[in-house]
Design brief:
By secondary structure, the chain is mainly beta. It contains no helices and 18 strands. It is rod-shaped and about 130 Å long. The protein starts with 99 loop residues before the first strand and ends with a strand.
Length: 312
C-alpha cells in the first residue's frame, strides 16, 4: 500500500476536492481525530453507523430529521424536554380499573386502591393519600316501603342500637276509606297492642271556603297512637304526608315515645289539616319498629314509607 505524506491538500483548481471514486471506502484508523469543528459538513441523506452503538455528543438534530425508534439513555430526558400536554393516556403505564393517582407524604405518585360499590373518596388529611371508605353514616336511609295497591298495614322495622334516633318520613298517603291514621310500636314480640298509649294532637284545619278551626285532641289508655285525628284522602290528587321521630328506641329503661307533624288533605280536599302529635306507651320496652294502619281496618292504597337512622 502506497503512503503519501503531506501537510495540506488543496484542489488543483476551483474550490472542490474529491477523495476516492464511487464504491471506494476511506478509513480513518483508531486513535486518529478527525477535526472538522471549524468547517461545515454536508452529510448524505442516510447516515449509517457501523454497530448502532455510537454516541452523538453535544450535538442537536432537528426532530424532523429523525426517523425510526429513538431510544435515549436512562435518566437523560428532563422535564424541560417534554412539551406540555405531550404525554397521552396511551403512554401512561397500565393500572387497575377504578384506581386513582394521588401523592404520598414524600410527594411521590401513588395509586389509590379501588373501593367497593357505594364507597366515597375520603380525605386522610395532610401527608397521606385519600382512601375509599363508606359514606358518612350519621344519617342513613335504612329502608323504604312503597305501597301501590291495597295493604292492611305497613311495618317499618330495623331499629336497634346502631343509631340513637330514628326518623320516619311518609308521603303521598292514599287510603281506601275516610278514616284516621294509627300507629303502634313494635317490639320483639310484635306490635304492642295493650291499652297503655296516651298522647295528644294539636293543630288547625281549614274547611274549604270557610274559616280556620282548632283540631286538638287528647287520648289516654288507648291501644294505639295516631298521627292525625282526621282521615287521609282516598284520592291520589289529595294525598297526605307526615314525619315522625323516635328517640332512643333501644333504651329498655324508658317508655317508648314518638312525635312529629302531619299535613292531611282530608275528604278529598274538603279539609286541609296541619297538626303536631306525640304519643307514648306507658310500659318500658325496647322498640324495633313502627306499624301503621287505618283505624277502621280499611286498606292503605298508596304511599312511600321511609325509615332513617340518626346517630346522636
Amino acid at each position: 500500500m502506497s503512503k503519501l505524506e503531506v501537510d495540506k491538500i488543496d484542489p488543483q483548481s476551483g474550490t472542490d476536492l474529491e477523495l476516492g471514486s464511487s464504491g471506494d471506502t476511506i478509513t480513518i484508523p483508531t486513535g486518529v481525530t478527525f477535526d472538522s469543528s471549524a468547517a461545515t459538513n454536508t452529510l448524505p441523506s442516510t447516515v449509517v453507523t457501523t454497530t448502532g452503538t455510537q454516541t452523538l455528543t453535544n450535538k442537536s438534530i432537528a426532530a424532523t430529521q429523525l426517523t425510526g425508534t429513538i431510544t435515549p439513555s436512562d435518566g437523560t430526558v428532563t422535564t424541560a424536554k417534554l412539551a406540555d400536554n405531550a404525554v397521552t393516556l396511551a403512554k401512561m403505564a397500565s393500572g387497575t380499573d377504578g384506581n386513582i393517582i394521588s401523592y404520598d407524604a414524600s410527594g411521590n405518585p401513588v395509586a389509590v386502591a379501588t373501593g367497593s360499590a357505594g364507597q366515597v373518596l375520603t380525605s386522610a388529611g395532610a401527608g397521606a393519600p385519600p382512601t375509599f371508605a363508606a359514606a358518612s353514616s350519621d344519617f342513613v336511609k335504612i329502608s323504604t316501603t312503597t305501597v301501590s295497591s291495597g295493604v292492611a298495614s305497613v311495618s317499618l322495622t330495623g331499629m336497634n342500637s346502631t343509631y340513637k334516633n330514628y326518623k320516619i318520613i311518609v308521603n303521598d298517603i292514599e287510603q281506601a276509606s275516610h278514616s284516621n291514621g294509627y300507629f303502634r310500636f313494635i317490639n320483639a314480640s310484635g306490635d304492642i297492642t295493650s291499652s297503655a298509649y296516651y298522647g295528644a294532637i294539636a293543630g288547625a284545619f281549614n274547611p274549604y271556603n270557610s274559616g280556620v278551626q282548632s283540631a286538638d285532641v287528647g287520648d289516654y289508655n288507648i291501644d294505639h297512637g295516631r298521627v292525625t285525628n282526621f282521615d287521609f284522602s282516598t284520592n291520589a290528587s289529595h294525598a297526605s304526608s307526615f314525619e315522625m321521630l323516635i328517640p332512643n328506641p333501644s333504651n329498655s329503661a324508658t317508655y317508648p315515645y314518638a312525635y312529629g307533624q302531619s299535613f292531611t288533605n282530608s275528604q278529598n280536599g274538603s279539609y286541609v289539616i296541619s297538626q303536631i302529635f306525640g304519643y307514648t306507651h306507658t310500659t318500658a320496652s325496647i322498640v324495633t319498629g313502627i306499624k301503621f294502619y287505618i283505624n277502621d281496618g280499611s286498606n292503605i292504597d298508596g304511599g312511600n314509607f321511609s325509615l332513617y337512622g340518626i346517630k346522636g
